[in-house]
Description:
Strand content of chain A: 25-35%
Order of helices and strands of chain B: HHHHHHHHH
Strand order of the largest sheet of chain A: 10-1-2-11-12
Number of strands of chain B: 0
Distance between the termini of chain B: 18 Å
Structural class of chain B: mainly alpha
Radius of gyration of chain A: 27 Å
Largest sheet of chain A: 5 strands, antiparallel
Shape of chain A: extended
Oligomer: heterodimer
Order of helices and strands of chain A: HEEEEEEHHEEEEHHEE
Largest sheet of chain B: none
Number of helices of chain A: 5
Structural class of chain A: alpha+beta
Distance between the termini of chain A: 51 Å
Helix content of chain B: 40-55%
Radius of gyration of chain B: 17 Å
Amino acid sequence: RKMATLSVCQPQLGGFSFENCKRNAVLEAEVTKLGCNIPSARKTGTTICGVVFKDGIVLGADTRATEGMIVADKNCSKIHYISPNIYCCGAGTAADTEMTTQIISSNLELHSLSTSRLPRVATANRMLKQMLFRYQGHIGAALVLGGVDCNGPHLYSIYPHGSTDKLPYVTMGSGSLAAMAVFEDRYKQDMEEEDAKRLVRDAIAAGIFNDLGSGSNIDLCVITKGRVDYLRPHDMANKKGVRTGNYKYKQGTTGVLTKSVIKLDLEVVEETVQTMDTS
Amino acid sequence: MNTRGLRSQLKDSVPVTGMGPQVGAYGVQDTLRSGFSSVKNELLPSHALELSEKNFQLNQDKINFSNLRNIQGLHAPLKLQMEYRAARQIQRLPFLQSSHLALDTLKGNDESISFEGILNDPAQSEMMGEPHVMVEYKLGMM
């Protein structure tokens, strides 16, 4: 019915195609026997977190993307736009979080046009969990979803297999334990905006300095009713150092012994002008 | 009764329990049309999601219709299925691209986007369907 056949009986459907899975499994086994590695997916081995304060939500994320043991992107953006009042941080496989948040953002936009209302965070949460459950965790996207809608500020954490939690403060990613330690120590209900920003910044910094998978800068996103502050970067915790010494030799260090100038006789043979058609 | 037409409907309902061998007209593997057979390819799916994705739309429809029957009574799914059947007939022959606009509007797919619309666009598939074979398959003559 598929590639092995000479002719196609039914029209092709869109979506995921599992044609090459068996071939990939065979290739992977052969390559491992030879001792090489197949390329791995780029992960965001991350620290992301969110906190509910008096008037809204503060989301925070680091900016390192890793590919195995190598830093693939020193300044990637992990806070994704979902709708004007809802933003989502993503940890896990970078492509999965990117595509998932874009699809849900499009669906929410269509939904909001159809209902002519500002979208609610619970709608985005429901759409995300239903999609992730459908793919049984094969889509590796762990998300922190936060926003302010007509019912106030809401914060959800969504796991790759489709379970969600609605909580006042959440952390996800490889640095989540470090960030959660900071939250558990200093979280209070109904904080002011500056306190909440400082708390999130410290939690992400804890993840950056104590977890190898997180690093570089700290991005913040403050969502309140009618206003979104996307602070990128909020804090450059890991600025690259400036070299203190100059190792270039001064002009004239090498002594000149002799000097001879040979003039090359060049003459213009042909000159052509090609006009570009810019109309 | 026209059994050929019924057989074409049976072919399009995918069995949930595994993937059976492709039997041709005389009860054996039809090598010319469906290629060489391989037990490994047919007994096990190549990915954990393959079966569930193949049947996803069908299963969703079953769930929705059964919920609708429990809430509103038998007439509701019957009427809807009649409308779906009518809308499904508004398409070109199988080897040409049809927009399925009526069917999508009825199902609500015009207001949502998923991986079906992004990945593996059928309009850009590398394999072309052979017109005669596809029409024969659709009419149940194969």
